[in-house]
User: What shape does this take?
Amino acid sequence: MKKILIAIVMMAMATINVNAAHGVPNYPLPQEPDTLRILGVGNSFTDDGMMYLPFVLQAAGIKNVVLGRLYIGGCTLERQVKEYESNSPSYVYTKSVGNNWTTVSKNATLLDGLLDEKWDILVVQQASGVSGLYESYQPWLDRLIEILRFNCRNAGATIAWQQTWAYSTNSNHPEYPNYEQNQLAMYKDIMACNERLMEETPIDVVIPTGTAIQNLRAAMQDARDFTRDGYHLNYKMGRYTAACTWFQALIAPVFRTSVEGNLSRLKGSSQVLTDEEAEACHLAARRACARRFKVWK
Assistant: This one.
């Protein structure tokens, strides 16, 4: 009996990624729940990543996913922590139930969104301009994980990470000089930071949006680099690829499906995709998730 109990404990521990330095656990993605609840906590890049996700879910016939976005433009990990500590109502909180976004509040606190649902997955990220500078991550990321874990109504929630994307080659973003205004250098620095956070924190679920966008750039050779201003994703293939990556990284393993063959074409909007464009986005997302951070050559 004692050996059986030890074996059960070891099996349970194997499913939980624990940060040895802080004793903060993470938990695996749920499997085929009645309702899946995902909250993104971040900034405009979180907004870009999640905006079209309801369209992809709807086309996949999945209606039991609740989405939330808590964001402040340009918000860093450091500011996320300070917003919580001051309980400042600085977030815009939007929510999708039944695959339709609505604005809940334009003056929300972090706790307003965090306590609104029993979230299964909490997705965080760094501000884009410093996402390739790991010294900007800590101690703020560890503290934010503790805040989310302590306050989340679901004790077994998964904390995940969105990998941001490198800027357009000709971007005029004021923080682009951090990477010598070089897209590939920025991308490599972001990847290095993502790999390090997976080694040093309990986060082991990453949405490789940055890799998917880089895959799309390599495949399509698009002069716009799929941004609308040099850093935010454009409203067509950029945001659609991001949504496909969120789907493939979070939805696919939970409901045992894939974004491959998804029929969403953004119909009813001014950004309708051709079949070829949609398939290129699907492929970029699937390859990013299959190969983690490596660009498909």
Notes: The domain at 33-290 is CATH 3.40.50.1110 (Rossmann fold).
